[in-house]
Design brief:
By secondary structure, the protein is mainly α. The protein contains five helices and two strands, in the order ααββααα. A two-stranded antiparallel sheet has the order 1-2. The radius of gyration is 18 Å and the shape is elongated. The two termini are 35 Å apart.
């Protein structure tokens, strides 16, 4: 990870993260089995709501780096919530892998031709998102600094 972090600037990292998040927000409403978008299912809105915290964290990182500020408790809490969201991203990745691996179970059914290509794109985007999220944590520690709990006052 450190090799990738040394070759990737924080601005490129933030832009790539935003692009991948927007693409995944769009693909979140897509159903691989039916080749249709479902905008009226409540379950499809869980991921977009969780990504709001990710967008806010990316903004806070960008602001703190530009203004050369130190981390604060609010930023720490936001990062800790992003750790939980990271697990949701991992779950979504494993879910898509499970869907793609179930293709053989539906051999007697008509599966859309976009099933495998779109599934692979979604897997790649989630893998890149997970890598970029970890790199964002590394950049936060390098550029902004570590969280020193003794300095925080309530």
């Amino acid at each position: 990870m450190k090799i990738i972090a040394s070759n990737l600037s924080w601005k490129v990292l933030l832009r790539l993260s935003v692009i991948i998040l927007v693409a995944l927000l769009f693909l979140n409403f897509y159903n691989l089995y039916t080749n249709k978008f479902y905008f009226f299912k409540i379950d499809n809105y869980i991921f977009p709501i969780l990504t709001i915290a990710h967008f806010v964290y990316l903004y806070v990182i960008s602001f703190k780096i530009r203004e050369d500020e130190h981390p604060d408790p609010t930023m720490r809490n936001l990062e800790y919530s992003l750790y939980a969201i990271f697990l949701v991203y991992s779950y979504k990745l494993s879910s898509i892998i499970g869907i793609l691996s179930s293709k053989a179970d539906f051999i007697n059914y008509e599966i859309p031709t976009t099933f495998t290509p779109v599934g692979i794109v979604m897997i790649a985007l989630f893998v890149f998102l997970l890598i970029l999220t970890v790199l964002t944590f590394i950049y936060r520690k390098e550029k902004i600094g570590a969280y020193v709990f003794e300095e925080y006052q309530l």
